[in-house]
């Protein structure tokens, strides 16, 4: 039996919620979660402050649903609406970077909210802590699968590589938002991800070796 609690929202309700979420993405992206108000969002969608609260209950709940909405946008076009497993994950990350170049509003909101989340008491902190923890685990598993396929039996620095891939993607998004003409988000993300993957599969000399060679060359030139 379908209860009132378990029934799916009516199409009109779902449409209005999506409209509010899209407006919240714009407002939070432009003003941040602190300065962006429910009144700003309500005005953008032609509703009252009370109308927005009717759909989401509170600003904090709306903020968390904005974050969920952003994550669902990443997998909306995938068959099972879930990021791929194994080595295919790296290609998915590259495709996501190219897709993000076409949706600056969502990228801006994510960048602003993730930066704000490090502050005490921010409602999105637990979301981002959990998100990074899960993504590091997904990337770690992808490395394990790829290393097995490539015959790499004892890969080094996988933990560092997992964190580095996520960091470089988020960092490039910030640079791109500040100066999109200077940074090709898709191409640069693809280059960085490939470089990190190759660093695990076929690690080259350590930086100390390069530094020693440079120092030796300079000494010989004297």
Walkthrough of the structure:
The chain is mostly helical. The protein folds into two domains: 9-64, Orthogonal Bundle (Arc Repressor Mutant, subunit A); 83-221. Helices cover 73% and strands 0% of the residues. α8 (158-178) packs antiparallel against α9 (185-201). The chain is elongated and about 65 Å long. The N and C termini lie far apart (87 Å). Residues 1-6 have low confidence and may be disordered.
- What composes the largest sheet? none
Overall, the morphology is elongated
The topology string of helices and strands comes to HHHHHHHHHH
Low-confidence stretches: 1-6
Strand content: under 5%
Question: How many independent structural domains?
Answer: 2
Oligomer designation: single chain
* DSSP, total strands: 0
pLDDT averaged over residues: 86
With helices defined by DSSP (H or I, 4 residues minimum), what is the helix count? 10
Helix content: over 70%
Q: In whole angstroms, how far apart are the ends?
A: 87 Å
Structural class by helix and strand composition: mainly alpha
Taking all Cα atoms into account, the compactness measure Rg is 22 Å
């Amino acid at each position: 039996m379908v209860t009132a609690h378990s029934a799916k929202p009516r199409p009109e309700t779902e449409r209005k919620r999506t409209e509010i979420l899209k407006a919240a993405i714009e407002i939070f992206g432009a003003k941040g979660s602190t300065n962006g108000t429910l009144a700003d969002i309500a005005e953008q969608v032609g509703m009252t402050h009370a109308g927005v609260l009717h759909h989401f209950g509170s600003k904090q709940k709306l903020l968390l649903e904005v974050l969920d909405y952003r994550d669902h946008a990443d997998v909306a076009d995938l068959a099972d609406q879930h990021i791929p497993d194994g080595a295919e994950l790296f290609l998915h990350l590259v495709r996501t970077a190219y897709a993000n170049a076409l949706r600056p509003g969502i990228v801006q909101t994510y960048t602003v909210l993730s930066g704000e989340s490090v502050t005490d008491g921010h409602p999105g902190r637990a979301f981002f802590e959990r998100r990074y923890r899960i993504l590091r685990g997904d990337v770690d598993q992808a490395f394990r699968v790829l290393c097995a396929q490539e015959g790499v039996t004892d890969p080094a620095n996988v933990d560092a590589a997992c964190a580095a891939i996520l960091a470089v993607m988020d960092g490039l998004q910030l640079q791109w938002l500040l100066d999109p003409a200077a940074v090709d988000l898709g191409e640069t993300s693809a280059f960085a991800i490939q470089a990190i993957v190759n660093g695990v599969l076929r690690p080259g000399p350590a930086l100390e070796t390069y530094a020693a060679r440079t120092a030796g060359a300079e000494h010989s030139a004297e």
